[in-house]
Design a protein that fits this description.
Layout (H helix, E strand, L loop, with lengths): L1 E3 L2 E3 L1 E3 L3 E3 L8 E4 L12 E8 L16 H6 L2 H12 L9 E4 L5 E5 L4 E8 L14 H4 L17 E7 L5 E8 L5 H15 L45 E8 L1 H14 L3 H6 L2 H17 L6 E9 L17 E9 H6 L2 H15 L2 H16 L11 E6 L18 E5 L9 E5 L12 E8 H16 L7
Parallel strand pairs: 9-10, 13-15, 15-17
Antiparallel strand pairs: 1-2, 3-9, 4-9, 5-8, 6-11, 6-16, 7-8, 10-11, 12-18, 13-14, 17-18
Helix pairs in contact: 2-4, 7-9, 7-11
Length: 472
């Protein structure tokens, strides 16, 4: 039994089945790219997509009452299970097993073992849970599952759960190895799954493996990183296991106002001509985290933004490539400059780091460093909270474009309970489509110590309300 906003409900889960490819697929062992092999990416990322009931299959009395006979004809779980078996013919590595070998490299054994697939039923309506908008992570875990599949030949890189609700709506939980796909690759797979569910006979974009394209030679010696770890600021709230995951809504007007304030203060034409909302928002959240965590001002604070490189690489990656293809825009600033100085300085540093991150030589140097780290069996451990890693999911098209026959999803939520370092990670998400007041806005998902969340909320409220000092 779970509870959300005083709504008690239970989720009945059926037995897990293994969905295999619809047709025979190649039996082979595939290697992965240098970026894929990053030990920090070897996690399963859980995302839940929310779909309303299809009105065509509801009675005239209430959209929350589904006609029994027709609902059987259009059971989302059956349709998605069948579509999964068809899409796996094209994405057959996802039906195999992933394992890190003795040489430190990941490989997928393509054996058509199948994808663990679970169907569940919740005894409540999606509307009673506000279509999962603002739901807490612990409650949302009911709609996804970890499959304990580690064996001699590895573990499943993909797991799916479909949860059906009394209203006729449903959720799809996509649990996918970040070592195999980045956000863009996951979106490409999810769209292909939806295409088969809606009756198409093949995906509009054919998947391309070709991970050897992004394999670098290890650098001879690991260089000094952008900031010495010993100089990083520390928080009195860390380390702790009492972490709160919370999503903050930021309206389009508040982001527009923040951008205007930064542009007004900046006398640098470089900023004025090409400033993006993400750069401004990232700088503001960077500062808000610093204040919320009470990091010491004489320490350094580091910033990292994931930027896609599919089209900026020379030559560009082939269309359909679904592996990890991103670079890191890295910069650092002293706590005092970030907290007390102009926000414009942080914005400018972020923009300059992004420009460098798109440089071909820089991309390959980062990969060479990563290849050396793999060779040395090294992995960066969780930081003191002084590092912020931000990634933007708004351009993946996961809400607008993925239609399983129930129109596009109305909400999507990542569940970061086992994602990179928790506290370091910030996700920028599209708003729930059912909240018209958030049109053009963004949601910011953070994981912070409970002791820091109130101050962070104050910073977000100040931005939304246009308080003095919230801008540049």
């Amino acid at each position: 039994m779970a509870t959300n906003n005083n709504i008690s409900f239970s989720v009945d889960k059926k037995d897990v089945v293994l969905v295999k490819p619809f047709k025979p697929t190649p039996s082979e062992v595939l290697s992965l790219s240098t970026i894929d092999n990053d030990r920090g990416l070897e996690i399963i990322c859980h995302s839940v997509f929310v779909y309303q009931a299809n009105d065509d299959f509801c009675s005239g009395d209430s959209p929350d009452e589904v006609k029994p006979k027709l609902s059987k004809l259009k059971d989302p779980a059956c349709i998605i299970e069948e579509a999964l078996s068809k899409v796996l013919v094209y994405y057959y590595p996802l039906a195999g097993k992933l394992k890190r070998q003795t040489d430190g490299k990941l490989r997928i054994t393509c054996n058509a073992d199948g994808v663990p697939f679970l169907v569940a039923t919740a005894n409540c309506q999606l509307s009673s849970l506000n279509y999962l908008d603002g739901i807490d992570v612990e409650t949302a875990k009911q709609f996804t599952f970890d499959f304990p599949s580690e064996s001699d030949d590895g573990y499943h890189p993909l797991v799916l759960q479909v949860t059906k609700f009394l209203c006729g709506g449903f959720t799809i939980a996509l649990s996918l190895s970040h070592s195999v796909c980045d956000g863009f690759g996951a979106s490409q797979f999810f769209r292909a799954l939806a295409e088969f569910a809606s009756g198409k006979s093949e995906p509009s974009v054919k998947p391309v493996w070709e991970r050897e394209i992004l394999v670098a030679k290890p650098i001879k010696e690991i260089p000094q990183f952008i900031v010495d770890k010993d100089t990083l600021a520390t928080s009195p709230y860390l380390p702790t296991t009492d972490i709160v995951h919370e999503c903050f809504n930021l309206t389009a007007e508040s982001i527009k106002r923040l951008k205007a304030n930064v542009m007004k203060e900046s006398k640098d034409e470089f900023l004025k001509e090409s400033l993006t909302s993400l750069e401004v928002l990232a700088a503001y959240v960077w500062r808000a985290r610093f204040r919320a965590l009470k990091l010491n001002s004489d320490g350094n604070t580091a910033f990292c933004m994931a930027v896609g490189i599919r089209r900026t690489l020379n030559p560009p990656l082939p269309e359909g490539y679904y592996g990890n293809a991103f670079s890191s825009a890295n910069t650092a600033i002293t706590g005092r400059d970030l907290n007390e100085g102009s926000l414009t300085k942080a914005v400018k540093q972020i923009k300059e780091s992004k420009r460098l991150a798109f440089n071909n030589d820089y991309i390959w140097k980062l990969m060479s460093i990563n290849e050396k780290l793999i060779e040395l069996n090294m992995k960066f451990e969780g930081s003191t909270g002084a590092t912020m890693v931000i990634t933007d999911w708004r351009q993946l098209g996961l809400l607008e474009e993925v239609d399983f026959g129930w129109k596009g999803s109305v909400n999507m939520i990542p569940l970061p309970w086992n994602m990179f370092g928790y506290v370091d990670l910030v996700l920028v998400l599209p708003p729930c489509k059912l909240d018209q007041s958030m049109k053009g806005g963004a949601r910011v998902l953070v994981s912070l110590p409970r002791a820091a969340i109130t101050k962070f909320r104050e910073e977000m409220d100040a931005l939304n309300h246009g308080d003095e000092g919230a801008g540049a």
